[in-house]
Amino acid sequence: xxxxxxxxxxxxNIHYMRYSLDYFLQAQVKAGIQSIxxxxxxxxxxxxxxxxxDCKALKKKIDSYHLEMKVFTPENCMYQFQFASLKPxxxxxxxxxxxxxxxxxxxxxxxxxxxxxGWGYLDEDxxxxxxxxxxxxxxxxxxxxxxxxxxxLESLRPEESNLVTTLQDTKRMIEEINHANVKVLVxxxxxxxxxxxxxxxxxxxxxxxxxxxxxxxxxxxxLVWGDGKHDLEQFLITLKQNGYEGYLGQEITDxxxxxDPAAHDCRNMKEFxxxx
Length: 276
Prior knowledge:
Layout: E1 9-12, H1 21-31, E2 35-39, H2 55-64, E3 68-73, H3 88-107, E4 112-115, H4 126-147, E5 150-154, H5 167-177, E6 182-187, H6 188-193, H7 198-205, E7 209-213, H8 232-241, E8 247-250, H9 261-273
Parallel strand pairs: 1-2, 1-8, 2-3, 3-4, 4-5, 5-6, 6-7, 7-8
Helix pairs in contact: 1-9, 3-4
C-alpha cells in the first residue's frame, strides 16, 4: 500500500545556500521532486521590511522546471527579524518583514506561509515575550486572511526559543490567537527533542495540522532520512491513519549536506520512494 504521493514531498533550498537558485531547481528535478517549500534566504531570494524580489520572475523560473511552490518560508532564525522582538523599532520592522512575506506568498500562489513564536530574552519575564509573539502573530493572521494565506505555526527547540517549544505551548498559542488563518506545522526534530510523538500531535490538533517539517533526527539534527533514528515507515503510517494530505517539507539544515546537497536529496528521495 502506498503511504505517500510524490507530490507531497516538498524539497527545500536551505541547504543549497552556497549554490544558485537554478542549481537547486535542477537538482529537484533530478531527484524526482515536484513540490517546493521555498526558503527566502539570500542568494535565492531577497525579502526585507520595505521590499522583496520580483515574484513574477521567480514564478516563471520555477514554472520552467515544471515545479510547484507550495509553502513560503521567510528566513527567521539566522536574520534579525523574528516574531517576538523586544525593541519596538525591530518589532515594527519584523512586522513589515513578515507582512511582505505574506504578500509575496500570495503573489506566488502559495497558500501556506511558515511561522514560529520567535523568542524572548532569557533575562526577561517569559510572559512579556509571549505577549509580543501573540500580538505579532495575531496581526499577521489578519493580513494573511486578506491575502488568502494561512500561517503554519511550528514549535522550536529550546536552543532556538523559550516560547513555543512543545505541543502544549503550541496549543496555548493557537488557542490564544484563535484565528482561522493560523494553523499548525509539525516539525519532527522539535517534536523529537520534546519527547513527543506524531500521534500525540494529531490527537490534539487533527486537521489543523496543515504542514510538516518532516526530517530524520537523533532526535537532534534536521537530517536526511536514514541518517537518524526516526522510523520513517511508522511516521508515514501515522500520517496515513490520520488522513494527512499536506506536504512534507524537507528542512535539511545540518552543515554536513551543504557541499553536495543534490546528492543527499537524491539519497533522501530513495528512502521515500519505498513508500510511494
